[in-house]
Design goal:
Layout: H1 2-29, E1 30-40, E2 47-53, E3 60-62, E4 78-84, E5 91-93, H2 94-98, H3 104-134
Length: 154
């Protein structure tokens, strides 16, 4: 259970850290531009954009996901995006930069981590209670490895 807890914490960090780093970069040095959606996968696994009004006009980029989530979009839609001027491929919808959506995958992994840690703690405390309550009443005889120790009286 403790291993599952650590796995869940790793998942939370993998979902939160890249998303927060992207938001921090886009908020500090992001450039806003209008873009047109030119392709959308059916799942959607990607949303491909063409920048329209910016120094990088005409550049085609894929919208970055925010913790595995992408905004609803259809081919031909227009949207305002914010991109990193140092790396124009790092693009996110401007509304998500200003007010990011609830990070549901990270919240779910956090809840699962809390459940796993609680169960691991409960099982550990129960085992300690069982061993103290129903354990041996006498201390066990110490083995001497096959040699016989005799007690001599004076």
């Amino acid at each position: 259970m403790f291993g599952l807890f650590l796995l869940c914490i790793g998942m939370v960090l993998a979902l939160v850290l890249p998303a927060s780093a992207l938001l921090k970069d886009l908020r500090s040095r992001g450039v806003s531009a209008a873009a047109t959606v030119i392709a959308v996968d059916s799942n959607p696994k990607y949303v491909k954009l063409r920048l329209v009004s910016s120094p990088k006009a005409g550049t085609e980029v894929k919208l970055w996901d925010y913790s595995g989530m992408l905004p609803e979009a259809k081919t031909g839609d227009s949207m305002i995006v914010t991109y990193d001027y140092k790396d124009p491929s790092r693009v996110l919808a401007q509304s998500w930069v200003e007010d990011p959506p609830a990070n549901l995958p990270a919240y779910g992994a956090s809840a699962l981590a809390a459940i796993c840690l609680g169960l691991a703690t409960a099982v550990t405390w129960r085992r300690i209670w069982v061993l103290r309550t129903f354990g041996p009443e006498k201390t066990p005889v110490v083995s001497t490895g096959g040699t016989c120790i005799r007690e001599t009286k004076p």
